[in-house]
Structure formats: C-alpha cells, structure tokens
Amino acid sequence: MDEQLRQRLSEIVASNEVVLFMKGHRQAPQCGFSAQVVQILDRLLADYSTVDVLQDPEIREGIKELSDWPTIPQLYIRGEFQGGCDIVREMYRDGELHQALGFERSAPVVPELRVTPAAVELLQGARARHGGGDLHLGIDALFRHSLGFGPPGGDEVAVDVGGLVVLLDPDSAPRAHGLMIDVQETPQGPRLSIDNPNAPGD
C-alpha cells in the first residue's frame, strides 16, 4: 500500500469514533454480513460512520492490508480494529461490544406491551402466511421499529400478548415498555400501527 492511501485510511479511522467499512451504506447494505453488523450497531448507536468500499477499490483492498484482515465488513472503534461480522456478533452477544463503546449492557427487562385483538389477528394471519415462527420486535437506537417472524435467537426477552409470543433483543426491550400495536384502516386495507411512548418527541 502506498503511503498516500495509508494516510487516507488512517485519517478516516482516526476522525470517526465508530466507523464501519462495509459493502453499501448504513441505509442500504449490499451484502448480508454488512447488514448484520449494521443491525447490531443500529441497536446500540444513533450515530456512527460507514464507508462504502464498493465505491472505492483502493479503500476496499487497502483496509484489508491496514487491518491484516481479509474480509469486509470491518469495524473500528476509537481507532482500534475490532473485527469482522462473526467477531462483532460474538462481542455483541457477550456484552464486549457494549463495553468497547463505553457503556454497560443493561440487565434484561420484560416490558409491558399492548397488542389489540385486531392486531393479534392480523399478526397471526401474517405468521401463518410466512410459515410460522415467533414475532420478533426490534427497536433501534433511533426508535425505528422492525417486525419479522422466525425462530428464537437465544438471548431475547419473550412477552406473551393474547397468545402471541413477542421476542425482543435485550437492547430493544427497555425501549418497548408501554408500546402498543394496533390496526389502522387505510385505503389499501388494514395495516399495523405502533405507538411507542418512549420515542423522542412523543
């Protein structure tokens, strides 16, 4: 790697407290591994930087040499290389990522959720169409909500609401206390609505 590229990469790493070298960008990851790391970081941080290596082949190859790590994505925190997707997932699961970012992982809490009967019926129908599984509710650091069906991941908090099991990761659970899922009628038909009293501005 030439010195100019090394200096360029060093400046990117040094000038961002948390920076992820990835394929795509935070709002639109272009590979599954990058998407997994973004999902984890979104749970913890409202703001961090990303660098799309697909837009610059020099950065894509140079960052591998700088870190002596062969794959993308790559996460740096306060100038220190942390690892790729598998390592970041392990760090998150073990609480080491929270520590590296400067805060402790909160103790598991079971939030109080409200899901109206109409919403339970709509969700049960969606679950049947998607082949079963439990409902996963995620709330990231920006209080964006995500819903999906699938098997338990092992570390979620489970809440039974009207016979519907809702699973939340440990970081989403405290943000969900008092949340209500209802059904709103629209010209396109009924759709779910989520009212979260913890969201900023509410």
Summarize the structure.
This protein has helices at residues 3-15, 32-44, 57-67, 85-94, 96-101, 117-129, and strands at 18-22, 24-25, 28-29, 49-52, 74-77, 80-83, 114-115, 134-139, 145-150, 157-161, 164-168, 180-186, 189-195. The chain is an alpha/beta fold and 202 residues long.
Describe the structure.
The chain is α/β, with parallel strands linked by helices and 202 residues long. The protein folds into 2 domains: 3-101, Glutaredoxin, CATH 3.40.30.10; 114-195, HesB-like domain (Hypothetical Protein Aq_1857, Chain: A). The chain is 33% helix and 29% strand. It is built from 6 helices and 13 strands. It has helices spanning 3-15, 32-44, 57-67, 85-94, 96-101, 117-129; strands at residues 18-22, 24-25, 28-29, 49-52, 74-77, 80-83, 114-115, 134-139, 145-150, 157-161, 164-168, 180-186, 189-195. The strands form 4 sheets. Strands 4-1-5-6 form a 4-stranded mixed sheet. Strands 9-8-11-10 form a 4-stranded mixed sheet. Strand 12 and strand 13 (189-195) form a beta hairpin. It is elongated.
CATH topology of the largest domain: Glutaredoxin
Parts with pLDDT < 50 across at least 5 consecutive residues: none
Structure annotation, total helices: 6
Radius of gyration: 20 Å
Give, in order, the helices and strands.
HEEEHEHEEHHEHEEEEEE
Terminal-residue CA separation: 50 Å
Report the principal-axis shape: elongated
* Percentage of β-strand residues: 25-35%
Defining key terms:
about 200 residues; alpha/beta; Glutaredoxin; Hypothetical Protein Aq_1857, Chain: A; 2 domains; 4-stranded mixed beta sheet; 6 helices; elongated
